[in-house]
Known about the structure:
The chain has 4 helices and 5 strands. By secondary structure, it is of the alpha+beta class. It has a single domain (3-137), classed as Thiol Ester Dehydrase, Chain A (Roll), CATH 3.10.129. The protein has a 5-stranded antiparallel sheet with strand order 1-3-4-5-2. The longest helix has 16 residues, at 25-40.
Amino acid sequence: MKHNETIIRVRYKDTDQMGVAYYANYFIWFEVGRCEFFRGLGMSYKNLEQNEIFLPVIEAYCKYKYPARYDDELKINTRLNVLQEVKLAFQYEILSVEKNKLLVVGETTHAFVNKRGKPVVLRKHNPFLWKSLQEKTIEKE
């Protein structure tokens, strides 16, 4: 499946007194990776919402291996690893660019829902978007 790389820098506000990135920020950085993943496909969350498709997180996981620190440059690798009619899931790796060291691995799973929060079958709700996601996320060998 398709993947995307995004570079960010740990800001001062992202850290505690010891200069270590606060654990919940990794979930924010996962979101940054997802947003850039969709932009890389030529669409955005805004496009999805304009098509009345919303992607709430229904499951999230993060395993911390090493801390990120203030001013570290981080690479977020985002990979779509599940695409089903009612949900999709992403895997993430966050690495220190300078040290080329894996800091965090994580996953999020998202449901396809309408603006009322009711689950939808994307293939039926928006066949064009479903086909587009399928075509754009299959990596060519």
